[in-house]
Amino acid sequence: MKYIYLIFLGIIAINKIKCHVTDRSKQSDGATTTLPEENETRNMMAKELSEKKLESPKKVQDGETSVYLDDVLFALKNQNWTAEEEPCFNHINRLLHGLQNFTLWAVWDWDSQASEPQGLLFGNRYQLGNFDQCMNAPWSKTHPELKTKYCLAEIVLERTDKAVRRRVDKPYYPYQSALDFIEHRPPHTRPLNELTWGACVPAACAPRTVERLLAVMLARSHLGAAGMRANISISEPCQSGDDEMEYDALFYAFFIVMGSITVIALICTYLNCQQKELDPNSRRTGFIQSFCIKENALDLLRMKKEGIEVFYGIRFFTICLIVLDHQIGISNSGPISDGMTSDQEVQTPLGLLILHDDLFVDTFFLLSGFLTITNIARFKRLPNPLFIILKRYVRLVVAFAVVIFYVCAVYPYTGTGPLWHKAVSHETEQCRKNWWLNLLMLHNYIDTENICIVVSWYIPCDFHFFVVTVLIYCVYRSLPKLGLVLAALVTAAALVLPGIVNYIYDLSAVQLFTFEFIIDPRASKEFHVSYIKSHTRYAAYLVGFYSGYLFVTYSNNGNLNRIRQKWAVLGTCTALTLMLVVMVVGSTFLWRSYYPLEGALYAALNRPAWACGVALLVLCCSFGHVPLVKSFLSWYPWVPLSRLSYGLYLTHTLLITRGVFITRNPQHNDYFEILNSTAGVIFWGCVMALLLWLLAEAPANKLLALCLKRRIKKIMTNRETNQATLSVNTSTSTMPTGSGHLNDNLPDTIHFTSKI
Known about the structure:
The chain is mainly alpha-helical.
């Protein structure tokens, strides 16, 4: 009987629960499924009572969230507010009350920012919130009183307990104070007490008021539990949805100039094709042929078989490695969620292959020196060196000028985001200020703290090396003994100066790509004193010049098979080993004890040693047969890609910087994704380089060659007239020595490719 009674009570309870659930579901159905007349009535009521809803005293809940908001509101009310700050405080007060009531506009604004920092101990510096939600509220135009703006605050946390800093034997001991862990910073790692916080605040708030609001919020977060003091500053202008960048005259000028050049190129291409149809054997050169897109594209595809075809593959793969390294570095300096892991990987075998990757640029210096001698050694009698230098200058500066023009005029308009303005505005300002230094090839010596396009330091170095080398070679051809003395002095200086500069200024042995450097290269002492200076980077170029002279000397008879295969393979293995040792040994200076003399010696010899390895590889492949290596590096598809490498070098950092700093949230530092991004940068960089070649580089080179030929023909005509009038031999008249031979030696298109 007892059990029957319990069963009866259970059945009654279940029926009551079912009835309650049924009633709730019916109420829910009635609330969500309404007739059109009911919707219209409800909308009218909502419109009439909208203001009341905004200020409704009813609270959704009285839990921990309400206590937190009351605490924040209490702290703000007990601060001294000036008359100018009153509108901001009133809006924040209304925001917090609306948030307690779960009003849409208030929840929208608060939801668009991080209430407290997250992941800071793992190296997540950037707390960006939701930038787009803050900037694009649906009611921003219909309700101007609810407008917001997005501000970036730089915060440095400092401990206030005045505790004596203890030696950290176990930095990851879980029971130590978190203050000790935050304060502990091993060398070459990012600080854990610094963060960048994005705040969505009322449009009426001044930066000082935003700093006070963030200080209150931070004090009530888990980071404020230990009483850490926060130094907060907002140095960058806040962004709002109404801020639209106006296109200035420079922006329109860029598109007018480049559009005009494009139209000219298309017209010239059409006219040249028509002329070819009428006269297929026509080989005349002129303005139309210079701008013909088809002719300039064919120039990219021509493979010069001179025994050094491996240069095509070496050049392209070197620029690919440089792009990969810059992708890793710039990504690591941007918003990533696992910065501590990235810092730890610096001392892994992978880090040893990345830290000293600036040696790849010395590969280009070697190739440039090698090709310089192989080009000018063909002249039986040297032309005027000023003509050669002018051609080299035009070869380098035309594409460079277009990229600078783009950075100054268009680049700031190509992206948005919480970090975009901060990352790009400085670059644009420096280019608008110092563009003329770049065009004069002086920006690696003058005002280097404001250098336009950081990676462009390579260009003046290459030009300076070319000028000095050509002048010394001209002296050598005229006065061999004096030329040899000058070459010996310059070579000795190129080897010794890097070590002397390193020792005098107490610099590190090499410029390692650590976090301190990649976060702001312009702030690095080594960058300004040693890394970008021509007199400290000349040795690799000279190694290329001398190895090229050996190649020219022993290949004049056309017989390149001078080394047996086994010795060629052995030499190639030796070259690769030497290059690997130089790179790895340089990276070890990150963690081992440093001795000034040892550092100076390595600084003096590491770059020429690397260049010797590359030169040995080239000579072994040129004078012998190295299976797989030679055939792969000489593969025909590398020909056009290698010729686009200079344009890729100029443009790749623009693409990488845009990809990193338009991000809205920290990214995981995944190396497969980095490889994927690098492939995209290489592809689009090659597309941009192709446009630079077709519309700027190739036409400028051909027009210069055309002008020089006409100038020389005019000079030669005047000389023949003088000879007929005066009946004297004027073969050494006013024209500089050897200028007359330029007419026969100067090609229709410029083939000086001794650059990237």
